[in-house]
Amino acid sequence: MMSTFKNTWFRDPNEEVLFINETAVRIRAGMMIVIPLFMALTLFDVLYTSPWIVDAATVEDTYEVTEASQIIYSGQMTQRVYDYTAQTALLFYGLFELLVGMTAWSSRFSPTIQIASFLARNKTPVWKPIAPKRFAWGLGISLASFCLVFFNPDTFANGVNSLFNGEWLPTTTNYIPYEIPVTLVWVCLGMVWLEAVLGFCLGCKIHALLVKLGMINEPCYACNNIDWDAIRARHEAKS
User: Helices 202-212 & 130-151, crossing angle to 10 degrees?
Assistant: First the structure.
């Protein structure tokens, strides 16, 4: 227990190049998928359900029909007011989780990392370099930050306008088209699902591509992490 709390999902927190347990990473992704899923359901509710609350007791038949032969009713209704306090709090927690996982020291303060490391303690560890994961988490931080702006456009606009001493962004309307966060939240949900279920890290693949193109200077740490004992054992089993 104490070793798990101290090392969390790292092979050795004191290594110059950090390696993390891929098994624990996948378990954590399964827990973190709750955040993009909740955001996706929120956006679905906002975009595709009625923005009006109808008082059923006031609904009356007007005995009139539209040109499409639809019956017209009258009644009292109020427009829905959306409160994104819960979404904002959850996004801030998601940002906290992504940020603290970046270093060996701060990772011990992450509840999901601690739980994932504990659940993976009896599984054979799969060690992977942390650099590609950091890149993937950086993408997640960008997506979460964008969603925070979408859910709190007036707060962000007031901050920008105060910083630059002008009216750069409107404070009474949402200046971000709904299509953008809807697309991004499904991208985020898909990335977390691929990591948790299939063990496929899209952010890691993008990182590898950027390294191949020379846009990121990164040595092949995986090449230096070959388990020769395991390879020898497989050859002996075949012979």
Answer: 120
Residue with tokens 């979408």: 150
- Pairing status of strand 71-74 against strand 60-65: antiparallel
Alpha-carbon distance 7 to 198, whole Å? 25
User: pLDDT tens digits, residue range 17-71?
Assistant: 889 999 999 999 999 999 999 999 999 998 888 888 888 889 998 889 888 888 9
- Joined together, the tokens standing for residue 168 give 């750069």
CA angle centred on 81, ends 79 and 166, rounded to 5° = 115
Buried b (16+ CB within 10 A) or exposed e, 39-74: bbebbeebeeeeeeeeeeeeeeeeeeeeeeeeeeee
Q: Tens digits of per-residue pLDDT, 14-26?
A: 888 889 999 999 9
What's the pTM? Answer: 0.82
Alpha-carbon separation of residue 158 from 101, 166, 211 (angstroms): 31, 10, 39
Residue type, 217: N
- Give CA separation, 100 vs 94, 109, 114, 145, 161, in Å: 10, 7, 12, 16, 30
**Three-state DSSP class for residue 201:** coil
pLDDT digits (tens, 9 = 90+) for 171-198: 888 888 888 888 999 999 999 999 999 9
